Records
---
Amino acid sequence: MVEGSLQAAYRYCQELARREARNFYYGFVLLPPEKRRAIYAVYAFARRCDDITDDNLEPEEKVRRLAEYRRSLGQCLGGHPSGPVFLALRDTILRFRIPAEYFWQLMDGVEMDLTVRRYPNFAELRRYCYGVASTVGLICIEVFGYREGEQARQHAEDLGIALQLTNILRDIREDAERDRIYIPQDEMERFGCSETEILEGIASEASVRLMRFQVERAREYFEQGRRLLPLLPRRSRACTAVLQGIYSRILERIEAQPSTVLRERVSLSGGQKLALAGRELVRSLMA
């Protein structure tokens, strides 16, 4: 009965990932079955957490729900999971010996979206990126397996920051509609770009130069993050390479037309993502 409930919990997480993961799902399917279902559980936990801050709820209700989610995480880590996501997550944590601190740090990062709408400098933005993205990468490599210990963990952290910086650029229009600006304020001032230009999607010379600067920094983090790939098992490497490839391609599109993200979201088609997934799987198996 317990095993049946656990299998149902993992199926629930898989369905949630299939429905919501979009870019990430193309990488997930390349993993071996046991690792794949563990990643579904991790994704489901992170997605549920993130959805609370993005839902159209009153701020007080978001605070209440995140506090409740935090309590549920504590119960899960203490051996008393409730609901399918935490049931699957508990099994994944035990099976792959994932440090609990990463999950708390992820929640800390997500909670920043409740109170922070502007970032004074990149050091503060990097702290946010670590919380919402690098922690997920650090969790994932515990599932994947890796060599070179601290070196691999640093590269996973860098790759997470690269992905989140790309997300920030891709979603700049959507975030502006929520009165959120993730571009560091001191850099906006340095380039002579006003908040009005970001919030209203004005493609001025200053805002375009600012976008190019953000692209260049994200690329530098991708260069560091790519060094993780040789330290992973082959199929885990393929999964990671697909995610890195999809987001790098999005970044290339933004670089080609930096004014576009001020007006609309930049993305890849399903066919393009599938082609990337197939290519990276072949590369990883031949490496």
Note: The chain has two domains: 1-100, 116-287.
---
Amino acid sequence: MKASYEKIISVAVPISSSVILDGGIGWYHFHPELELSLVEAGRGVRCVGSSIENYAPLDLTLVGGMVPHSYAAVEQQEISDLKIRNIKFLPDFAGPEFFRQPVFVEIQQLLDDSSAGVVFPAKSVRELIPLFDRFFEADQVGQVFCLCNILDFLSRIPRRKLSSEASVAESDERSRQVLHYIHDNIASPEKLSLARMAKVAHLSPGAFSSYFSKQFSRRYLSYVNELRVNIASNKLNNQRLPITEIAFSVGFENLSNFNRQFLRYKGCTPTEYRAKLKTITTTS
């Protein structure tokens, strides 16, 4: 599969917006524009650079240009239960060097931090929703002012970086191919062996391990295992699916390794995690 490089915005129209109703973009993609993504409904796995986390309503991220990212919805989720609002924009949407002025130092720092991807606390995001509403109702000129207000708001609240500096050069075909291959074949352990991945990257196994660690600031197997665990944690919402079936469906070849890796990344066993989900569902 070719890499999903997207050139979304022209200089003449520096902002675009969309509402995703199909559970999000389930493949790794990237583009020169920055992207704000607000989850209003739905659950799944969010990948930004080397970060792999679950997403839920009120999840808001700001992802910098050329940072690989994806949103993959929980399987068997009703389409009507899924909604993500996106705003994509060029860093100079308000004018060349506009945010470089001293008065906008906090906004510029926010834009700089987006090179690692940032996420904001749900409590603060709830207060931001009216600004998003106004943005999506505004004309092109109004969207510029609304986006400035949104960025000003975000620059004043806490945020957490998701990854190391995670942007990919447009010319880095190898990184894009590796990420695509991993996400496309996460359920097939034989396709994600170190030897097979080295062939995909046209490197020796040792060179591939070093390359992946340097490029994504983590070990290859650690990345794969965490991705599998996060996909599995969402499948555990379906109380009828056997845990063994879930383990195999995300690429684990035996239940003991699945339990060990799940405990490592989630701090509890899959059975305990499912029990917590059931309690939350019952009390909500």
Note: Residues 9-161 form a domain with the Jelly Rolls fold (CATH 2.60.120.10).
